[in-house]
Amino acid sequence: MGILLQDLRYGMRTLAKNRGFAAVAVLTLALGIGANTAIFSLVDAFLLRQLPVKDPQQLVLVNRVTPTGGVEDDFPYRTFEQFRDRSHSFSGMFAWDDSTMSVTVDGQPEFLAGDFVTGGYFDVMGVGTILGRTFKADDDKPGKTPVAVLSYNYWKRRFSEDPAVLGKSIYLAGIPFSVIGVTPPTFFGRNVAGRSADVMLPMFVHPWLALKDHDTFEVMARLKSGVSPVQAQADLNVIYQQALMQAAGSGLSPLLEQQIRAQKIELKSGSRGVGQPSDHFAVEIRILMGVVGVALLIASINVANLLLARAVARQKEIAVRLAIGASRGRVIRQLLSENALLAALGGGVGFLLAKWGVSALVTVLSLGGDAFPFDLKPDPRILAFTAGVSLLTGVLCGLVPALAATQIDLNPILKGTEGAAESRPLRHSLGKSLVVSQVALSLALLIGAGLLIRTLRLVYTIDAGFERDKVMFAWVFPALNGYDHAREMNLYRELLEKVNRVPGVQSATLSRYRQFVARPEEDVWAQGSEATETREVYYNPVGPRFFRTMGIGLLLGRDFSAADTETAPKVAVVSESMARSFFPNQNPLGKRLGFNGPASRGDVQIVGVVKDTQHHLLERRPLEAVYIPYTQAALDDYGQMNLVFRTAANPASVTAAIRQQVQSVDKDLPLRNVETPAADLDEYLGDHRSLATLLSFFGALALVLASLGLYGTTSYAVGRRTRELGIRMALGAQRKEMLWMVLRETLILAATGVAIGIPLAAVSRRLISSMLFGVSTTDPVTICVAVLVMLATASLAAYIPAHRATKIDPLAALRYE
Question: Rounded CA gap, 45 and 372, in Å?
Fold first, then answer.
């Protein structure tokens, strides 16, 4: 240990004398290590962490296995009650149902992500509050004063962490809920990271609690000490099958009994919660792990090249050490100690960069959607990962140069007769290999980023079949405010009347679904088909003047009007591709359709045909679509609508006026997701945009690192060849010849790296092939552009030291060294 400390002190003095070299090496390593630490922070949050609750390993999620072998996680509330009251395997159990809530706070309506939870929710989870208290069992009983617990993020965002929030009322469907507590900042409900409920309400106020067929309640429980999951699962199986048979009653047939016995309860570990964002980010994280690994490898190669060049400059020092009795192993250990210092410094700076970088990564990965909140504070695993990567990097990038530096012939070096030409890094086989490797790896990343960027450019130029300019969507959700069907219909009619009178609005309508963020399908039967022959098509209930507002061309027949009411004959408008497919070589007007599969009565008449639209642009195929008046939709399609309006100028200019009109109809009805179709398209392409952004960033980082490596090795080569270059100029060599001589060596290495990098890029192309659209993995345009960028960057990196070489004074060069 004493010798190690001595080596480290000497290494610190050596690096202090070479601050420029140390700064470049530390920054290079910091970029590579920081990127890997940032990605590992996401992996840690999404894949490794457990819920920040008491003894999370005791928590289990209750699932059910259907007769077909599928696994579901939701139950009717009465089934949960039987589990809770009859089971003896758990110390506690709770149910929840997450929902979007329309609430009014301080007179302002807004949408919140909410959870209805049973009284044991916080006790079973083992979570307290940082302000106030949590629910108790008595808070979840009918007749009790409604109370609410807020999440830390919502408390911070909406109330600026004001302690006076306790006792404040939040109104849901006109009912006041008194705020009694705020959860800790590290608590995200049943998720380690991801969706976090803004507000938690007691289950007894759930609007559909009494409905027997409402089975959206999920269940989590805590095992008793000494009870295994297998024992608890057997316990719940008995209760569940008894409950199903009891519900069947006198209608229990042998076939139904067989189906009931095929249904089982399956317990899954709840230590990591539910709904992990890793499902959403799986592809991106896997690709990014490979990309940042390559970035670290390029950084390590760069530092190894710098260390190799520096080792050549220290040959005389190393030769003296060996000559006076130091063993080769002792010198290598000294050199590795210096490298370990560089890696430690790089790791420290990289860790600081990662603390900022992980927030940026989450923001970019969430392009087109809400960012996933999670605890960004480093934990021991992240610190250990950074330390391990730093140590490994220091050893790997320093070992080869250290071995090369100590494998020398002492006599010529000590006598001063070692030819400079023999030790030039650019002509040293190891130095050449390192430079070529950097170029090849950088090119592979550039090609991958280029393919994704080309994909995005192609998708954004596709004609979606409707006019995207000057159109705006706004989501209204009257069901959250307790509207029944009749009130909802009156609301929509009044909204359309008022919005159509807003100055600047050319046309307004309604649409159940947006163009890019949803793809609902319905089984449709067509006149002339077999009774059981149905087909799934795109389905959308819309309002009058929908096609005019959206700019969808009407080919035959008519648009919907206010006369298409609930009691009017049922009508539909179909897309041209659906008309051709269902009624080839026939006039579709007057033909009949039916919904709900084989049970259809064929009571819907086609009154119009419109142009095809593209909803999922990445599939790039005509969409068979059917549109019906929203007034004639099935009951399960009600409760929410998108208000769609087209304006003469920028839609944002009339948004405030439209909000006022909505508030004049119902002051507690908020508008949400007020966006253009372009914003919807951005959300639809969120995964591609985020991955293209990150690959472009890391590709640019790799390009910078490779250019720094080329610049450093070329500069060092010019410095080592100063005497040779002076002699050449003294003998009459022209400056252009000197410039080309230096550039040629660098460009040969860059071209070799390109030749290796093109087939190497096949690996990166294979990783992202599933995200490409309209672009081949061997797209010549992308490959050529990436190669040109790589060669241009290499030329620029080499030109600066090469140009400096042409300015050498021959007399000064002859006296050099």
Answer: 11
